[in-house]
Specification:
Radius of gyration: 21 Å
Distance between the termini: 20 Å
Strand order of the largest sheet: 1-2-3-4-5-6-7-8-9-10-11-12-13-14-15
Largest sheet: 15 strands, antiparallel
Strand content: over 45%
Number of helices: 0
Shape: globular
């Protein structure tokens, strides 16, 4: 279940504000184990680990859309709480702060510098556990462009760091990237390429973090004024820092949206996901069917 809300405020030509709130009720896939204390085999649990999260975002933008220089300042708070299987030790609060400076070099092309910080606080860790609290840093350079030779995109490359509060944990420092490129061969058809490299919270009980690489391709097509479809495929690799566990992931999906009314859309979707791990018992397959309603006021 997902519920989101967005408010865009144009304070003046140079000042804009976007406020967002989101509530998500979801679950972890089978094969995710408790990260603190005794390792629990989630594959043996009668239900997957269920959780809910609340997120609040605010982005302040300074600079007119066509100005030589612009800046975005972003802040967010995320609260995740587990609801079953005695997984309260995984409850955590996250604070995000980042800023992006854009320098226009062509009418529709800008270079960018992004600096970001993310603090992760596990709120229910047992006293005897080695703390998983950490701070992540992000230093990225890149470019963004619009409608140049039928493409629109943002590419960012640089350095990412994960620094733990506990000396017993292994810190990380290495290359990271975030790429999002859209090619529009026709006004009614687009192809999106996304790829990234970043760290994620560990789930095994013996590791400190997971280094995740992803690449995805999506084709979106508007068949009529009311009917849209999306086809997507993705590949991923997860490297666990201490246990030498490596997971290869692949996924494919299809989505269909139909506009019943001007203010109401109905959606159907199917996703197939597979995980192939060098730890055989962590192999995983899932089939997810989705139904959605989208209403606009």
């Amino acid at each position: 279940h997902r519920l989101t809300g967005t408010a865009d405020l144009d304070i003046s030509l140079r000042n804009r504000l976007r406020l967002q709130a989101a509530y998500l009720k979801w679950h972890d896939p089978r094969g995710s184990d408790t990260p603190i204390g005794t390792v629990r085999r989630s594959l043996e649990a009668p239900e997957p680990d269920k959780w809910h999260s609340t997120r609040y975002d605010g982005t302040y933008s300074f600079g007119a859309p066509g100005a030589r220089g612009r800046i975005d300042l972003h802040a967010a708070r995320l609260f995740r709480r587990y609801d079953n299987n005695d997984q309260e030790v995984r409850d955590r609060d996250t604070t995000e702060l980042d800023g992006t400076f854009y320098f226009r070099v062509k009418p529709k092309t800008s270079l960018l510098l992004e600096l970001g910080k993310r603090d992760i606080d596990y709120i229910n860790q047992p006293p005897e556990a080695v703390s998983l609290d950490s701070s992540e840093r992000r230093y990225l350079l890149g470019a963004t462009w619009e409608a140049t030779a039928k493409t629109t995109g943002t590419v960012k490359f640089g350095r990412i760091k994960k620094i733990f509060d506990a000396a017993e944990r292994e810190d990380f420092s290495g290359g990271g990237w975030d790429v999002n490129i859209t090619w529009r061969p026709r006004s009614y058809s687009t192809v999106d390429l996304l790829t990234s490299r970043k760290t994620y919270e560990q789930t095994t009980g013996v590791d400190d973090f997971v280094l995740v690489k992803d690449i995805a391709l999506q084709w979106s097509h508007k068949w009529t004024q009311r009917l849209d479809t999306r086809l997507k495929v993705s590949l991923g690799r997860d490297d666990y820092n201490r246990s030498d566990r490596q997971d290869d992931r692949k996924a494919a999906g299809i989505e269909l949206d139909y506009q019943l009314r001007r203010w109401l859309d109905i959606g159907l979707g199917y996703d197939r996901t597979e995980r192939d791990s060098n730890v055989n018992e962590e192999d995983y397959q899932s089939n997810v069917f989705r139904f959605s309603l989208k209403a606009a006021l």
